[in-house]
Amino acid sequence: MNKKEIEKLKKTVLNKATLVFDQLTRQQKTKTFEFGEEYKGFLDKSKTEREAAKQIVQAAEERDFVNIDTLLTKKQHTCNKVYKIFQNRCVAMAVFGKEDIVSGVNIIASHIDSPRLDLKQNPIYEDLSMALMKTHYYGGIRKYHWLAIPLALHGTIITSENKAIDISIGEQPDDPVFTVTDLLPHLAGKTQNDKKISEVFQGEKLNLVAGSIPLGSDIEKERFKLGILNLLYEQYGIKEEDFISAEIEAVPAQKARDIGFDRSMIGSYGQDDRICAYTTLKAILDIKQSENKTAIALFFDKEEIGSEGSSGAKSNFLEDFISDLLFVRSKDCDSRTLRKALTSSSCLSADVNAAMDPDYKDVHEALNAAKLGFGVCMTKFTGIAGKAGSSDASAEFVGKIRQVFNKNKIVWQTGELGKIDEGGGGTIAKFIARYGMNVLDCGPAVLSMHSPFEISSKADVYMTYLGYKAFYSDND
Ligand code: MN
Ligand code: MN
């Protein structure tokens, strides 16, 4: 073969990764940056699953999606776009297609919960001259990430009179914040530096500093705690017992920011997995006319603690929603029809993968690791030690999605979560696969995943959105 022939062959047979920024036209680049701005706004307003659910429902209603539970109480069902919210923490949206639901729907399923510090049910106590609050971390965190940074409190408290009080303290510039203390380097030698990370940072030491002005004289017992309870009672009418029926989350008190001189990346808390939630939301909102297949967007809670509970992906939420859709459309929602609809469907499990980190290349296998900026990432399998716990997507389904993406000029890559035997993880894919439908993990790769400041590429965010749109329109 001569040089020219070899070049031609290389173009034909070699699989070369494409950098999104190499591929974008000037107009697309502008759109990419505009999309990034909107996405940052969503992140700032969606620090918890409840807040994300609220944002999603608001966006849906603005685009004339109707609450399916309201619709079901009426006799006539002539609506094309519906949504369902469950327990204020889990949302589904659908745009009916031309085909029957029983012949299968196109689902994109993400999660809107993120790792954080939850307040315990008896949080407030005092020590030395301070009031503090006990937390119990939620999801996989590196505990040291949460020390000595400003934290905001977000959540809902159900009072003894059954009143729901929403709180958000620490997001406005003049709001106070909370923080977990850390040891000064001068004294950290024996206590921290000489020990293993897993031993040094303990969950029970993730306590929030909450105040230091006492109430009453110095003979008063628990007067620092009382000082805080007094303020809470005055400001919100909250009593100590109300914390029992509350979900209050301490999250990083900072806004999403551009990263780099060129502003090409976004740094923010909660991008796992609100990056997929937002791109899915935008993709389904964009459907102007019915596609052939019904398009469904699912936004689950509880993924970070194993998809448990009634608002997690292990629940019946998806089945219930599809059964509602069948009923609204054709009144035919017997169990056989429902099963047939479920098994005939396709799903993108929209979740992030880990981008290869320039400082920690060793934990990845370069040939199969996802890289920042190389587009939306298809992850055929997840799992730990020999794919354990993974829903391994079929070659046929991966092939189908690959075709859809190529047809729509989506820049995509594949990824594996770390080297074999290095660790691993899972997504909601396997809980959806149990219905018999095809499921493939698909989302952008991020750096510093599960940290208070995760990094994404604006190009990947935009490409993910375009990829999800392509799936809704072309996965027939
Ligand atoms: Mn995730
Ligand atoms: Mn996660």
Structure write-up:
The structure is a single chain. The chain has 476 residues and is an alpha/beta fold. The protein folds into two domains: 7-114 and 269-473, 3-Layer(aba) Sandwich (Aminopeptidase), CATH 3.40.630.10; 116-252, Roll (Aminopeptidase i, Domain 2). The chain is 32% helix and 23% strand. The chain is built from 14 helices and 23 strands. The chain has helices spanning 3-13, 20-23, 26-45, 49-62, 68-72, 189-193, 197-200, 223-236, 271-285, 317-330, 335-343, 395-407, 429-433, 458-474, and strands spanning 66-67, 81-86, 90-95, 106-111, 116-127, 130-138, 151-158, 164-169, 179-180, 208-211, 246-252, 257-259, 265-268, 295-300, 346-349, 353-354, 376-379, 383-384, 412-414, 424-425, 438-443, 445-446, 454-457. The strands form five sheets. Strands 1-2-3-14-4-15-21-17-19 form a nine-stranded mixed beta sheet, sandwiched between helices. It has a seven-stranded antiparallel beta sheet with strand order 8-7-11-5-6-10-9, with helices on one face. It has a three-stranded antiparallel beta sheet with strand order 12-13-23. It starts with a helix and ends with a helix.
